Each structure stands twice: as structure tokens, then as C-alpha cells.
Amino acid sequence: MDAQPQCLAGRFPAHKVQCRKRDSGANRCTSRGLDGAGASGSGASMKAWLPMACLLLAGWAHAQQPAPAATVATPPSTPPPLQVRVHQEPPGALVEGETATIKVDMLTPDFFKEAPVLPEVHVDGAYLSLTDETPGHLVETVNGATWSGVSRTYLLTPLVSGALEIPAFDVTAKVGAQGSPVTVQTTPLTLQVQPLALPAGVTQALIASAVTLTQTVTPESGGLHVGDGVTRRIEITAEGAPAMMLPPTEFKPVKGLALYATPPVTRDMVGKQGGFVGGSRVDSASYVIQRRGHYSLPPVTVRWMDSRTRTWRESNVPGVSFHAWWGAPSRPRFALPQQGVMPRLIEWCSSDVGIATLGMLALGGLMWRFSDRLRRGLAWWRAWRERRRHAEPVMFAALKRQRHATSPAALAEAVDAWVRRAAEDGGPPTMQDWCVAYGDDALRGDWSALQDTLYGQASAAWSATAIVEGVSRARGHWRRQRRGHRAPALPPLNPA
InterPro entries in the record, alphabetically (predicted)? Predict the structure, then answer.
């Protein structure tokens, strides 16, 4: 029952009822008639009809309240709408081996309760992978309403030219407060891929905006010995290309070193904003020294195409050289169980410094012991070198270099030097004798013209080329005659 009014005087005319006072915490009213009747009689009649008035008033108040609304069954709510679009960013034709960004935008007028689920999509003739970068947030206006969403990124690297189609795939998301799963199928996306001609020596195309090679060699200091290891670490970093497209580093074997390669480590790099930046690949190998010597590891070169200028570039790291000695200094080559003077002496003698010192001492002793023979041998070698420097073929080669001489004095000096050296081997002593014994008319005429130019009253026409060719013919006759009349090596058996 609704609450009842504490005082009912308001339900009666003012000239019939008048509130006088309050006592004992309860509201109580006294009435007084206009005719001046006694208080006792009127009070008794009020008590008689007051409960019935309260009941009537309560029923009237309950009737004035509105009826409760009837419960109406509502149909189940439809799932919130979800829009998905797939596009290339930036748009345009691609080249074989070039990495493109495929964006998948997911929008809803509500909100995503959980991150949308995207599948791994297989595309024939291309590498397509979903990146781990931070999803981008989207806010757009669709038909006058505000839609929000997220964007995920696929990396696509085509391996063949022509039309490349990314098939339709399903995207599932939980939208709204109830988290109802919604599945939407994307539309296929077709891309155009242009062929790429690889230069000579390149087997795998690497297209990026920048490529950096970093080399680390440990240990950095020298002092290597047989049994030690040298680790070479090569890191390739490419901007705009995923790690799976980076070529492996080829560690070539080196004679005297045992090669042990480790599995590569690849990762895709993201920037400060969470977007894809590029890929990184680390290849390393250890070379274990098997014998003493000097070793060189070849340089490493990577050829790649600049995605901005479409030109081929090279990135490289230099080679590595090091020297390895016998045995570690802390471990003698011939270990002895006890310690003392002899073990220390053997340890020093077996070290590289000891071996070099002993070798120098032995060489010095041999040189002192055979000093006389060494002096005679040195004198003979010097004389032989002098003879070789002034041999007849050497002097004739100097004469042939005067073929185009314009100075008669220079040509005559070269001819005279050759004639004197040939005379030591049995040739004629003068050029006139050469002309008579082995020369022809042309040589005699050319030589006479040269002599008239040098010592005559009037100059005659001469040719350096003709003189050199004539001397060459005369020398040929002399050498053939000399071979035919070579003196026997043994004296006659029965000398007269």
C-alpha cells in the first residue's frame, strides 16, 4: 500500500477542521463546530469515521497509480556490421623479387572485443606472410556515421612475372559488448608483376632501399696458435626487404682451416611506430686452425637493386688475414712430467721464437764455415750477371731499338757496341768486315751513306730501318755459319 498522508485536514473544508497542536510524536487534529458544541462530543465522532476515511483514501490513491507495463519479447539482435578491404600500399606495378605491402583494413561502427583473426594465405609464385608489427588504428566516416577499426599488414614478394592474384580469405572478429563472432570474406586482389633481368653472377634478386653489411671477427687480437678458432660473423641488413629474401653468406673453405658453419638467424625489423622497416640475416662460421701459417679469408660482396632508382649496387666487407703459430705458449710442444731447467729449455726451444733463433744461429755458423766458398760463388755470380747484361743478344736487341733513330751518331754508336761484343764471340772486328763477309750490296750501300753523313763533305740519304734490317740479315748468316763450324769439345786423338 502506498504511503498515506500524515494529516487528513486537507481533505475537508477549512471551516470544519483546524489543526491545533502536535503531541507525543503523532499528528493529531482537533475540530471545532461553528455552533460552539463541546470538544468531547465532536472528538468521539471523529474517532469513529477516521479509520474508514483512511481506507477510502488509500484505495483512491492506489487507483490513481499507472498500470505496470506489459513484458514484450524482443527478437535477437543482429550481429554488428563489419567491413574488410584489401589493398596494396603504395599501388603500382611490381618487379620480380620486390617486396610490397598488402594492407587489410577492418572497420566496424561498434568496437572490437578482441583482435581480429587473419589466416596465413598461400599464393602461388610468391611469398606472402603476415607481419608481427603493431596494428594500425583507423577512424573513418561511412554514410555519415563514425567507424573505427584496425589495419594489419602482409608482406608480398613475387617470384614470377605476370598477373598475380591474392585469393579471397576469411577474416573473423568479435564485435560489440557481447563479443559475437563475425566472419567476412575479402575480395580477390590482382597485381601486375614485371620481369627482372639478373646481371652476370647474380642468382637471387635482392631489391631494397638500402643494404648494409657488418662484419665481426673474434678474437680481434693476434697471438693465434694451432688449435685456436676464429669466428667470422656477417650480418646483412636490408631496408624494405623481409629477412626471408636476404641471400645466405657463402663461407668458402680455406686450406689448413677446418670450417664449421652455424645456422643463420633471421628477423624482421620494426620501427619506433611499430611499422615494418626491413629484414636482418646473421650468418657465422668458425675456422679452426689445423697447422701453422698465414691465412686469408676472402671478402664478402652482396649485389642488390636500389628500389628507388632501379640500379644495381654492391655492398661488401673486406677480407680477414691472420697468422697462426705452433702450439699455445702456455702448453709446451714436448710436455715433461717434472719442472726444472731442462723442461723450460725444451719449452723455449720448441716455441716459435726459439726455433727462429736456433735457425738463425745455424745459418750464421754455416756462412762462417763456408765463407771462402761463398765469396768465390758471389764473385762468379756477379761476373755471370755482368756477362748476361752485355751478352751479344742483349747488345743486338739494343741495336734493334734504333730502328727508327733519326740521329746518325746514335745509330753508329749502337752498331759499334754490338760489333765489339760480337767480336768476342768470333765475329768480324769492324762493320766494314761484316759488310764484306756477311753483308749484301744493300747493307754496304746504306752503311757507306751513313759514314758519308758522319765524316764526309756532303750528307747522303740513309735509313736506320734499312741498316738495322741489313745487319740482322748479316747476323743470321754469321750465326748459321758459326753453328756449322763449332769447334769440337775434345782435342784430336793423334795430334801431329
Answer: BatD (IPR025738)
AA identity, residue 432: Q
Q: Is residue 112 part of a domain?
A: yes
Integer Cα distance of 79 and 490 in angstroms: 122
Which positions ≥6 away from 233 have C-beta within 8 Å? 215, 216, 217, 218, 282, 283, 284
Q: Are 47 and 56 in contact (CB under 8 A)?
A: no
DSSP 63-118: HHSPPPPPP-PPPPPPPPP-EEEEEEES-S-EETT--EEEEEEEEESS-BSSPPB-
Task: Report the C-alpha gap between 206 and 197 in whole angstroms.
Answer: 12
Statement to judge: residues 452 and 480 lie in one domain: yes
Domains in the chain: how many in total? 5
Which pLDDT score, from 0 to 100, does residue 2 have?
42
Q: Examine residue 187 and state whether it is found in any structural domain, yes or no.
A: yes
Residue 492 lies in a domain: no
Q: Give the residue ranges of DSSP H helices in 246-340.
A: none
Query: Does pLDDT of 490 surpass 70?
Result: no
Cα(427)–Cα(268) distance, integer angstroms:
84
**DSSP characters over 16-76:** TEE----BTTB---EE--TT---HHHHHHHHHHHHHHHHHHHHHHHHHHSPPPPPP-PPPP
184-227 tens-digit pLDDT:
999 999 999 989 888 887 888 899 999 999 999 998 877 788 88
Q: Can you tell me the distance from the alpha carbon of 240 to that of 437, in angstroms, rounded to the nearest whole number?
A: 85
Question: For residue 51, what are the domain limits?
Answer: 9-55
Integer Cα distance of 156 and 158 in angstroms: 6
Same domain for 350 and 241: no
Query: Which pairing describes strands 100-108 and 83-89: parallel, antiparallel, or unpaired?
Result: antiparallel
Looking at residue 130, which CATH number applies to its domain?
2.60.40
